[in-house]
Amino acid sequence: MEKIKAHIIVNKDFVRGEIDRRIYGSFVEHMGRVVYSGIYEPGHETADEDGFRTDVLDKVKQMGVTAVRYPGGNFVSCYDWRDGVGPVEERPRRLEIAWRSIETNEIGTNEFMKWARKAGVEPVFAVNLGTKGIENAVSLVEYCNIKEGTYYSDWRREHGADEPYGIKTWCLGNEMDGDWQIGHKTAEEYGRLAQETAKAMKQVDNSIELVSCGSSKSDMKTYPDWEAQTLKYTYPYVEYVSLHQYYGGQELGTRNFLSQSLDMEQYIQTVIGTCDYVKAWHRSDKTLYISFDEWGVWSVPDQVVAASVDERPWQVAPHLSEQIYTMEDALLFAGMMMNFLKYADRIKIACQSLLTNISAAIMTRRGGEVWVQPIYYPFMHMAHYGVGKTLLAVDEIPSYDCDLRKAVPCVDYVAVSNEEGKEVVLFAVNRMEEEAEIKLELQGFNAVCVTEHVVMHCADIKTSNLEEHDAVKPRQTDNSSLHDNIVTSFLPSFSWNMVRIEIL
Predict the structure, then answer these.
(1) Domain holding 455: CATH number?
(2) Residue 500 — very low, low, confident or very high, per pLDDT cuts 50/70/90?
(3) Within 10 Å of residue 311's Cβ, how many Cβ atoms?
(4) Do residues 153 and 88 both lie within one domain?
């Protein structure tokens, strides 16, 4: 079988943008087993004094997660944060309407902040603009960020947290463009509410940064007009607009399935253009950035979620949409994640959805083991080594046509320069059944050697880690070599690759 041959040129002086470490974020929502028996399970053999699973904490740290969005998600649109503070035995059990479950409120703001500190992650909080509004959001900022001497700050101190949390980033609601959202709003309704909430929140703490709700996915009928309309209200008061996206379609075949990262790229480009249009409309000199704070691969049809909650409603932490990922899924996941590096100049926050058990990188069994899915590894590699600056590149790469898209590059890639770490790192996905040969030309760099080529590849791309937890995992290879500042790498069929090159 003939090799695919690709030529990529990067130059030390041509940079796309600085990489914000917060793009390596994840997401914890009170849905299914994400919280209860995911990150929190008192009585588990690894549970610490606060009931948090230390085996999961270890995996989170190894994964390289830098930020976590909390508490939702659809959950937040019917959530009163006051239910989750104070003595646990006094907290109400609520009907959780979004996922038709029972919420015990054992875990709330203070417990999550304890977990976040143990995990070493920055919190990204969401406020309820579905069934609540300005007062609920403002009081939560006061509770979290004011030191003392006011009703809610002193209440926090009564609950055992003497020092304020100083939470920096706040999302103004969740997916308010979606008719599935409790408290769904039109663009004008959301824009006005978010505008006034943002103004009030910044009156309490003017150091915070705010995220205006953008589109829930790229095929929303209201996209991109939603961004254009809502940002006319919120642009002066926010620093980010959110985007969300999930892709399924495995049944369409691998070529179609893997092409969808290009749809995501077009989505990003369109929203950047819309933000810049609104910037001009406001005659503003402020650049708005993107918080891609919910994203992932969807391995089961949407109706499975609905069926699960309809068939067995009002349970505590039910098994819900616990998707199992394959090697094939990990390739699309990696392609989606590489987009955050490619657009590092505008994407500053990203949250993989979800951290545990639902569309998750980390899986747990109640009372039992923890294991990781194939998607865990591309995230881990990029989080640890996608540091520094994204390099602009020119390339010559063969492409293919499929039903969903024309001219899909056979190899997807991004290159990063880490001057502090003295290395250039190439991340690459081979989308094809043939081996690919890449020549990476490093202009302006003094390359010393290839320090590592990590590859993840399976003979059967439908392999998962469900039964054999190490069935899909990366391995070291000698598939790369350096000569005259040109790195030649061989990428196996349908593979994820990381090539690290030492520079002086």
Answers:
(1) 2.60.40.1180
(2) very high
(3) 9
(4) yes
Q: Is residue 301 scored above 70 in pLDDT?
A: no
Residues 363 and 400 grouped into a single domain: no
Concatenated DSSP letters of 33-86: TSTBTTTB-TTSTTB-TTSBBHHHHHHHHHHT--EEEES-SGGGGG--GGGGSS
Mean pLDDT score, 66-89: 98
What is the per-residue pLDDT for 300? 75
CA-CA-CA-CA dihedral for 337, 343, 347, 350, to nearest 10: 0
Using alpha carbons, select from 69, 68, 67, 201 the residue that is nearest to residue 129: 201
Going by their DSSP bridges, the two strands 411-418 and 389-396 should be labelled as antiparallel
Q: Are residues 359 and 404 in the same domain?
A: no
Asked whether residue 230 falls in the same domain as residue 259, the answer is yes
SS3 213: coil
Predicted confidence at residue 386, as pLDDT, reads 98
Write down the catalytic residue from 29, 122, 294, 322. 294
* Residue of 29, 175, 227, 328 with catalytic role: 175
On whether both 345 and 432 belong to a single domain, the answer is: no
Question: Quick one: what percent of the chain has pLDDT higher than 90?
Answer: 96
Could you confirm whether 294 is annotated as catalytic?
A: yes
Domain match, 377 and 486 both: no
pLDDT higher than threshold 80 for residue 304: no
pTM for the whole structure: 0.97
Say if residue 163 is in the same domain as residue 230: yes
Domain, as residue range, for 405:
4-13+389-503
Q: Rounded to whole angstroms, what are the CA distances from 71 to 18, 125, 243, 353, 450?
A: 29, 7, 17, 12, 42
| Predicted pLDDT at 1 | 59
Residue 308 in this model has a pLDDT that exceeds 70:
no
pLDDT of residue 52: 98
The pLDDT tens digits of the residues spanning 7-62 come to 999 999 999 999 999 999 999 999 999 999 999 999 999 999 999 999 999 999 99
Three-class DSSP labels, 86-110: CCHHHCCCEEECCCCEEECCCCCHH
- Write the single-letter amino acid at 276: D
Please list, in sequence order, all residues whose beta carbon lies within 8 angstroms of the beta carbon of residue 121, skipping any fewer than 6 positions away: 25, 26, 60, 65, 66, 67, 68
**Based on the structure, what is the number of domains in the chain?**
2
Proportion of the chain in helix, strand, coil states, percent, rounded to 5: 30, 30, 40
Domain boundary among 351, 385, 419: 385
Q: Where are the beta strands (DSSP E) in 72-226?
A: 94-96, 101-103, 122-127, 169-172, 209-212
- What beta strand segments (E) does 318-375 contain? 347-352, 362-364, 370-372
- 175 included as an active-site residue: yes
46 and 92 housed in the same domain: yes
Specify the CATH number for the domain of residue 44.
3.20.20.80
Of the three residues 385, 403, 423, the one that is the final residue of a domain is: 385
CB neighbour list of residue 102: distance below 8 Å, 6 or more residues apart: 93, 94, 95, 96, 314, 315, 316
The enclosing H or E element of 195 equals helix 187-204
Give the residue-averaged pLDDT of 180-199: 98
